[in-house]
Design a protein that fits this description.
The complex is a heterodimer of chains A (267) and B (384). Chain A is an alpha/beta fold. Chain A has six helices and 14 strands. In chain A, the strands form four sheets. A seven-stranded parallel sheet of chain A has the order 9-13-8-1-6-7-14, with helices on both faces. A three-stranded antiparallel sheet of chain A has the order 10-11-12, with no helix packed on it. Chain A has a two-stranded antiparallel sheet with strand order 2-5. In chain A, a hairpin with a 3-residue loop joins strand 11 and strand 12. Chain B folds into three domains: 115 residues, Acyl-CoA dehydrogenase/oxidase, N-terminal domain (Butyryl-Coa Dehydrogenase, subunit A, domain 1); 109 residues, Butyryl-CoA Dehydrogenase, subunit A, domain 2, CATH 2.40.110.10; 149 residues, Up-down Bundle (Butyryl-CoA Dehydrogenase, subunit A, domain 3), CATH 1.20.140. Helices cover 52% and strands 15% of the residues of chain B. Classes of the chains: A alpha/beta (267), B alpha+beta (384). At the A-B interface, helix 2 and helix 5 of A face helix 1 of B.
């Protein structure tokens, strides 16, 4: 059994700056981090590895600097790491990204054991783009079932039983065959930090680079060419108005709130 | 000459900073008030291998025994969050675990080092006595040979982590005369009959770290627990402290860095006379001086660590690092309180704690005066 964890390098700040000319994030001088939800995904994979015999493989698409987060994944205890890096991958939207990730997963499976069952774990979304589209698109690309926002998962040789969050308070239990994809939020676990020994070990492991040629990629489906969406404008939402805190007894607060809503012509 | 950190060191810094900010920073004030290190943090620190930082993996450590710069980075980042955790980790590693690794027999390593490196036990180094402080040769605690055992009698004071330590390195007098050639270092288990913890000190700074009086009353220690050779204890204690001072220097750098960062943040936010106080030259000069002091302290610390790692003589470099770093931390903490004005005196702001913590550094592990004495004596001996 293999567990693939898809991870992304993101800017480690709560307030991003955007270059108005290129419509892209300003990355200079900003610390890069492993996307928070992806740390939860790695933690889940490692917890499953402690219980079941599996190999945990981390995958990331990004520039060569993204090695840093894969190194961190290795330091946490992931067995192998692959970086999908090529200038031709640049400018990819979520669709082109999913296609590229799917190719890499197929290639890795083909070169080890094509019949082997596998599970893909993704962080539900990345803190930079926040689309949450890659996990479902990746599952579609691979034509495998998916369960989103998983809170708990049990693994057997051929299937998974996953508890997923449904609306705010309900939990749905879903059983599906493997291979499958699940996505997780930060409520699933408390990710471990890499230990010093883990960090030392991780620096002796190789991170395999795969480019478009290695993946035998269709050039019309990768990078900017393969992207079906186009960014027209990117902006930071302006703060409108101020937060008002209403105090007092419940009756007073309700009355106050209703008056406020009437004043604002909401009611 | 290379001034950049290795990829490994960069990751150690980044991860330790994230870890410390998540787990240590939020409870630092509470730990200071309670005068106690938090248990949950202790468990987490154990999982991170911080207690085996400079011990090889084969003895349960993390493997930074040849990367003292990496070790210093860890201590700096922990201390940036809480200097009390910094001193506890630095002392445990630097003057308890590492000496056993460096000078211990294989049997001693199996028996004592592995538990220390894994954090199952905390280590302490016990030299100071009521009448033996800066004058370390004046140790009065005696160890009298009786068959293949030694009987220890006396009292140690101001032992960092003494009250929570499971394994102690104890410097004892093993001869009749008061002589530096009559001293021996013993490894003592805290379960040994006759050993007890006395007064727990109520300190000015690093209050969460334990500092205790330790009482030895007919404590029988087998002779195989002697670290190194009998009679060579003074020399060994000095060597142990040479390495230990690198960790203390790193602790001071981290504390100073925290004071600097708090000052920059406050100077940008606090508005007086219709502008952030950071616009005033009086504040700017302080911040510039603090930054220069800390950066030079960091470089001194890395230099001493580097000399250690290449197998060079590093004792004077570590004295210089400890001196410069402790005074830089004091300068930074002093500046930080001044920049914060009235708020700097209040417990609600961490700089009040930094100020108390920083003063400790100029005194423990050899006062500034002793460091100057050692540095100057060495220079004068060599001649111009």
């Amino acid at each position: 059994m293999k567990i693939f964890v898809c991870v992304k390098q993101v800017p480690g700040v709560s307030e991003v700056k955007i270059d108005p000319k290129t419509n892209t994030l300003v990355r200079e001088g900003i610390l890069s981090i492993l996307n928070p939800n992806d740390r939860n995904a790695i933690e889940l994979a490692l917890t499953l590895k402690e219980k079941y015999t599996t190999e945990v493989i981390a995958l990331s698409m990004g520039p060569p600097q993204a090695e840093e987060i894969l190194r961190e994944a290795l330091a946490m205890g992931v067995d192998k790491a692959f970086l999908l890096t090529d200038r031709a991958f640049a400018g990819a939207d979520t669709l082109a990204t999913s296609y590229t990730l799917a190719l890499a997963i197929k290639k890795i499976l083909k070169e080890s054991n094509p019949e082997e069952k596998y599970l893909i774990i993704c962080g539900a979304q990345a803190v930079d783009g926040d689309t949450g589209q890659v996990p479902p698109e990746l599952a579609e690309e691979l034509k495998i079932p998916q369960v989103a926002y998983v809170l708990n998962v049990e693994l057997t040789e051929k299937k998974i039983i996953a508890e997923r969050k449904f609306r705010a308070v309900e939990i749905v239990v879903i059983e599906t065959t493997l291979p499958a994809l699940i996505s997780v939020l930060n409520d699933i676990n408390e990710p471990r930090y890499p230990s010093i020994a883990g960090i030392m070990k991780a620096h002796n492991l190789e991170i395999v680079h795969l480019d478009a040629v290695a993946l035998n990629a269709d050039t019309s489906k990768i990078g900017l060419n393969g992207s079906s969406t186009e960014v027209w404008k990117i902006f930071i939402p302006e703060r409108k108005g101020d937060r008002v805190i209403l105090r007092g007894t419940i009756e007073e607060v309700i009355q106050n709130l209703c008056q406020n809503l009437k004043d604002d012509k909401v009611l | 000459m290379e001034f950049s950190l290795t990829e490994k060191q960069k990751m150690l810094k980044k991860i330790t900073r994230q870890f410390a900010e998540e787990y240590i920073v939020p409870i630092a004030r509470e730990s200071d008030e309670k005068q106690e290190l938090d248990d949950k943090v202790f468990q987490k620190m154990k999982e991170m291998n911080y207690f085996g930082g400079c011990i090889p993996e084969e003895y349960g450590g993390a493997g930074l025994h040849n990367d003292t710069i990496g070790f210093s980075i860890i201590i700096e980042e922990i201390s940036r969050a809480d200097a009390a955790w910094g001193i506890t980790t630095a002392v445990h590693n630097g003057v308890a675990a590492y000496p056993i690794y460096k000078y211990g027999t294989e049997e001693q390593k199996q028996k004592f080092l592995i538990d220390l490196a894994k954090g199952n036990k905390i280590g302490a180094f016990c030299l100071t006595e009521a009448n033996a402080g800066s004058d370390a040769g004046g140790v009065q605690l005696t160890a009298v040979k009786d068959g293949d055992e030694y009987i220890l009698n006396g009292t140690k004071i101001f032992a960092t982590s003494g009250g929570i330590a499971g394994t102690l390195l104890v410097v004892a007098k093993t001869g009749e005369k008061e002589s530096r050639k009559q001293m021996t270092v013993f490894i003592v288990d805290n379960k040994t009959p006759g050993y007890s913890v006395g007064v727990k000190e109520d300190k000015m700074g690093v209050r969460a770290s334990n500092t205790s009086e330790l009482v030895f009353q007919d404590v029988r220690v087998p002779q195989e627990n002697i670290l190194g050779n009998p009679g060579e204890g003074f020399k060994m204690a000095m060597k142990i402290l040479d390495f230990g001072r690198i960790g203390i220097a790193a602790q001071c750098v981290g504390l100073g860095q925290a004071a600097l960062e708090a000052s920059i943040k406050y100077a940008n936010e606090r508005v007086q006379f219709n502008q952030p106080i950071g616009r005033f030259q009086a504040i700017q000069w302080k911040i510039a001086d603090m930054s220069c002091a800390i950066e030079s302290a960091r470089l001194f610390t890395f230099k001493a660590a580097y000399l250690h790692d290449i197998g060079s003589e590093f004792g004077i470099a570590s004295s210089m690092a400890k001196l410069v770093a402790s005074e830089a931390a004091m300068q930074a903490a002093h500046g930080a309180v001044q920049i914060h004005g009235g708020y700097g005196l209040m417990k609600a702001y961490p700089v009040e704690r930094y100020f108390r913590d920083a003063k400790m550094g100029e005194i423990y592990e050899g006062t500034s005066e002793i460091q100057r004495l050692v540095i100057a004596a060495n220079l004068l001996k060599k001649g111009a």
